[in-house]
Structures are given as structure tokens and as C-alpha cells.
């Protein structure tokens, strides 16, 4: 496993994620809860003591959450680019499919307001 802490320069070509996203909010919340847990384990008043530490760990968690969302966005974009490049170079493996019924090999019959689908036997 290779751990890259620095995002590649290709990330700059991607649209930036919003500042308030699920990762940054979750990370900030987890950082704040971690500082509250630290206060509780050290037998200090949970909410009243170390407000500066609570803000510090909440902001660290917020930044880490935002970073992880950017990293995931880059990873998914890279995977999609490779997948579409493979599809473009191997079109014989990805033939155009017809309708859903042609894909599922079924026969559709309508009787009144009810529609029934029957599977067609392979010949």
C-alpha cells in the first residue's frame, strides 16, 4: 500500500468539492467529539474545559474530511477515465443493448391494464 499525502497536480483540473460537504462536516464533528472524549478521559469538565483544544481538533477533522473527499473525487475520476478509455479501445466487448426486454430475453404481453413479462427460452 502506497500512502500519498500530497494530491497530484491533476486534481487541479477537477472541479473543487463544496467546502461544506459530508466529509468535512463529519470530520469536524469527529474531531470535536475526540476532544470531548479527551476531556472526559482526563477527568476535566467535558464541555467547559479546553475550548481552544475543541476548536483545534474540530478544525483538524474538518480539514481532513475535506481532504479525503478531494482524494476520493480524484480516485473516482481517475478510475472513470481509465474505464472509458478501455471501453473506447475495446468496443467489441461493449455492444449496444436494445430495450430492457431484449436484454432480459423476455416477451411482454398486455391484457387489459395488466402487463405480464414471460421469459423466452434460449434456442
From TrEMBL:
Name the protein family. Belongs to the complex I NDUFC2 subunit family.
Please give one Pfam family short name. Answer: NDUF_C2
Spell out the protein name for this chain: NADH dehydrogenase [ubiquinone] 1 subunit C2
Lineage: superkingdom: Eukaryota
Q: Where is the signal peptide, in residue numbers?
A: none
Provide this UniProt record's keywords sorted from A to Z: Electron transport, Membrane, Mitochondrion, Mitochondrion inner membrane, Respiratory chain, Transmembrane, Transmembrane helix, Transport
One GO process term, biological-process aspect: mitochondrial electron transport, NADH to ubiquinone
Give the membrane topology: Single-pass membrane protein
What is the first-listed, main subcellular location in coarse terms? mitochondrion
- Give the UniProt entry's GO cellular component terms: mitochondrial inner membrane; respiratory chain complex I
Q: Where in the cell is it found?
A: Mitochondrion inner membrane
Q: Which gene encodes it?
A: ndufc2
UniProt keyword Calcium, yes or no: no
Amino acid at each position: 500500500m502506497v500512502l500519498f499525502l500530497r494530491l497530484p497536480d491533476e486534481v487541479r483540473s477537477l472541479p473543487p468539492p463544496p467546502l461544506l460537504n459530508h466529509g468535512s462536516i463529519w470530520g469536524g464533528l469527529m474531531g470535536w467529539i475526540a476532544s470531548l472524549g479527551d476531556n472526559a478521559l482526563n477527568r476535566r469538565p467535558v464541555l467547559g474545559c479546553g475550548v481552544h483544544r475543541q476548536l483545534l481538533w474540530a478544525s483538524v477533522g474538518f480539514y481532513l474530511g475535506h481532504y479525503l473527499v478531494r482524494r476520493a473525487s480524484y480516485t473516482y475520476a481517475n478510475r472513470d477515465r481509465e474505464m472509458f478509455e478501455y471501453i473506447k479501445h475495446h468496443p467489441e466487448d461493449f455492444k449496444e443493448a436494445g430495450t430492457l426486454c431484449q436484454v432480459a430475453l423476455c416477451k411482454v404481453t398486455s391484457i387489459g391494464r395488466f402487463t405480464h413479462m414471460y421469459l423466452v427460452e434460449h434456442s
